[in-house]
Every structure is written in C-alpha cells, then in structure tokens.
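Record 1 of the preview.
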Amino acid sequence: MVKELLKPIREYKKVTWLTPFFVSLEVVLEVAITFLMARMIDLGIDAGDINYIIKLGLILTILCLISLICGIFSGFFSAKSSSGYARNLRDDMYIKIQSFSFANIDKFSSSSLITRLTTDVKNVQNAFQVIIRLAVRAPLMIIFSLIMVFSINRSLSLIFLLIIPILIVGLYFIINKVFPLFEKVLKVYDKLNNIVQENLRGIRVVKSFVREDYEKKKFVVASDKIYKYYSRAEKIISFSSPLMQFCIYTSMLLISWFGARLIVNNSLTTGQLMSLIIYAMQILVSLMLLSIVFVMIIMSRSSAKRIIAVLKEKVDIKNGSKNWSEVKDGSISFKNVSFSYTNDQDKLCLRQVNLEIKSAWTVGIIGGTGSSKTTLVQLIPRLYDATEGQVLVGGVNVKDYNLKVLRDQVAIILQKNVLFSGSVKENLLWGNYKASDEELQQVCRIAQADEFIQQLPEKYDTKIEQGGNNLSGGQKQRLCLARALLKNPKILIFDDATSAVDTKTEKQMEQALKEYLPQTTKLIITQRIASIESADLIMVLDNGQINGLGRHEELLKNNSIYKEIYKSQQEGGLPV
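->
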C-alpha cells in the first residue's frame, strides 16, 4: 500500500526531500542554541564576562535567524510538496475512474468515488505533510535532546526513562480507540454524499411529492452520525492534552527538585539545569507531536485504503489483444449471449440470445419493463461484457477491438439524457470536436433541434444549466440525438430516446435519418409500436430472452406479446 501511495510524488521528489533536510537543520540549530545559552549563563553571566556574553549573544542571534529561515523553507517546501502530491493523487484516481466500466463504477457507487476524490485525498494529504515535517522533526529532536541530557547528567536523564513509557502507553491507548471511529465516519460520509446527490438530482420530484421534510430528516440523521462519531473521537483525543501536561509538569518538578539539590552540592550548574528543563520540554513536546502524527496517520489510514482500492481496481473491460483498429460495417451478431451484472449464473439478465443484424438495417426492440432491452444494447459498445457467448460487430468479436475505435463507431442515446454545463455548441461538439458550424446546424436540423435552438437567447452559444435543467425533456433528447449524429457512426442506438418527442416530430426525424445515414445500422428501443412498425426487423424481448423476431406484419400474426402491446395501444388511443 505504501509503495502505491508514494507513486504520485513524481515531480515533487526534490521539494519532498528538501522539507526533511531543512527540518533537520532547524532541529540541530535549536539543540545547539539551548546548549550555547547554558554556556552563556555559566561562563558569561555567572563569571561576569561581558565580552563572552556579547560574543555568544551575536552567535546565538545568527543561529536563531538561520533556524528561522530553515523553518520558513521547511514550511514552504512541505506545503508545495503536499499540495502537488494531492493533485497528482486526485489526477491518478480520476484517470483510473475514467477507465472504469459500468460494472466497476457500480461496485463503488458514484457518491463513494466523490468522497474518495475529496475527503479521503485531503486526509492523506494532511498525513503526508505531517509525515515529511513533524515525523522527521519529532524523532530527531528526541534523539538529539536525549544525547544532550545524558551528556549533562546521567542520573537526571533517568527521569525520562520513567516518564516516556507512561506517555507512550497512554497515546497508544488513545490511538487504538480512535481508529475504528474514523473508519465509521468515512462510511457515513459516503452515505451523506449519496443523499445530497440524489436530492439535488431529483429536486423536482422531491418538491412535487412534498418530501422536503423526509429528505431533511435523512440528511440530519446522517449528519448527526458524523457528529456523534467525530465528537466521540475528539473526546478520546482530548485526553492526550492532560496526559501530556501531566508528563511535562512531572518532569519539570522532578528535574527542578533533583537539579536544585545537585546545584547545592556543586554537581550541576545553573545553566545546565536551565538547559535540562528546555531539553525536557523539547523531548516531551516532540512526543506529543509524534502522537499527532500517529493520529493523522490513523485518520488517513482508512482513507488511504479506500484510495488504493480505486487505484488497484482491476478494470474488467480493456482493449482487445488483437486491437482491431477499424470497424468494417454496422453488422451485429449475438451468439449464445448470456449476461449477469454479478457474474452469477443463477442471476442472468439475458439468456442464450442469438441474433443476426445486417448492416444498414433498422431494428426495433420492444418488450415489457425489466425485459433487459437496455442491457442487450449496452453489450454492443462494451459498456458491459457478455458473461457467456460472443457479440460481434462488423464480423469481429467486440473484445478484439480497440475500445476507442469501437465506441467511436457506436453512438448510443441513453434513456437518461445527459447534458453538461456549458453552451449548446460545446455539448454538441462532444460528438466531433472538429465539427464546423455548418455541420452542427445540419445534424440539429436532422434531429429537429435547430428550430428551438434558433429561438434561444444566444442560439448555439446559449448556456445550458447543470443537467440541462433549462431545457424540456424533448429538447434534451433532440440535442443528444444531434450530438450522436456528429459521430457519423456505423451503429446508432436509441434507448427509448424519443419518448419525450411527439409522433409527428419523430416521423420527421426518422425520414431525415434515412437520408443522412443510409448505411448506418439503427437499433431502436421503444414502447411505441408506431416508432418501429417500418423496421427491417423487430425483436420482442421477454424476461431476458428473445420471444419473437420478424417484421411488423409477421409478429402481429404469430407473437402474442407483440399483439397484446399493439392491441393495448390501439384501445388506449395511443399511436400504433
């Protein structure tokens, strides 16, 4: 785990090493300053040697300035290295997440990934900064101060051998109690983020069902849990302060008591006693700093494990070993395809699907809710991989293609129309960032979107709010279609993508598509028979299996499910 966490340092290795270097210099100077102050008291002030006092005073002033400069540099370099480290860590995680398949994302959940990219990275960044600075300063200060204490008076140094174990045992107990609480906090953070995400995405639903109070209650419960765990952790950590004070003041009293007796017996000088007290403070404060380091490491340990889980996650969809770089045509073939989201043979969504689709065909896919229509088409661009069997595009197994090449030739318009913050034009250019304004207008006319775009305040430069909330459902669908058309794909998939469009507009779009993309294979998932009655092939899915295949007239004669859907739409006054 440590090796993986060190990788993001990269270009910040130099400043990372400079931090402990300047910290070490600062520690050496502080120890030396205390030693020289004792010399000034014993050889200058007690002896009444003014020249020695001035000489040593100048040296102490210079050393103090150098120590201050070292402290400034160590702070500067530690801030720079920790910020750069966190940036690289976030970048590595985000890049890895971009390579995830839908299955990988489902495993973590989007709210958990957001927590890992923000809260967890911040925890690890704080721990990293503490390690390269305090974790270097504290041990060095303890070692050098103990050496000086032993060199001054061995008998008094035994006080530390009694006090230090008490402090270590107490800090270990505190740390051991705090760690499980921080693990619980991070899990609740995931839940809190999920609540906020769902609430903001579905704010219109929340308000229409007057569920604000319910949503507030959910948020407050999660927030209270975080408060409870944090407050319990802080209460336990707060015991470190009185423990520290007990050890410091006990050490002071013992050193002062025994030191005064030694001064009376001329076994110790006043300067040495003063330096012993300062060294005692430095040792015990450094131990306190070490406890802070341990607490930070413990807080970040859970975060680090969660980050490593993302970085080490095995991406289950990669470029094929043969790495085909061209899709010949839009023909599609399913050969004994079965699929399970959990790779469990007992929980198959698709079962033994066999299907042949010729290039340039228009294929309709219809079936009840939960019949796995969307699941079927998601196997074509490898958003998921088939659990069993083969999916072929252009006569080649999709697992043998370069992913970018395959997905560039398969445009899919999902049920949930996703638009991003930015202008209408910027959203359209997702289909082809090199497209000209004329090409943009052409695909928008085909998608029946140009008319409403021209009525927008700034036309193609009109800003789209987050999630496209300033557009209607039909407008978003038409923009998503135009964006997909810009790819000029060999396969175009409509996943119930015209549900918010009226029948007249849909027919206009259908005719325009035939003229603009005559060689493109079109797969249309729909609940409206009117949308697919002229298709070259219609597939009826039921419970993850093909229940019927044929043209509109054939299915009306020999498929009960299709006839039932057709009849219900006729009787319901829906277009058939």
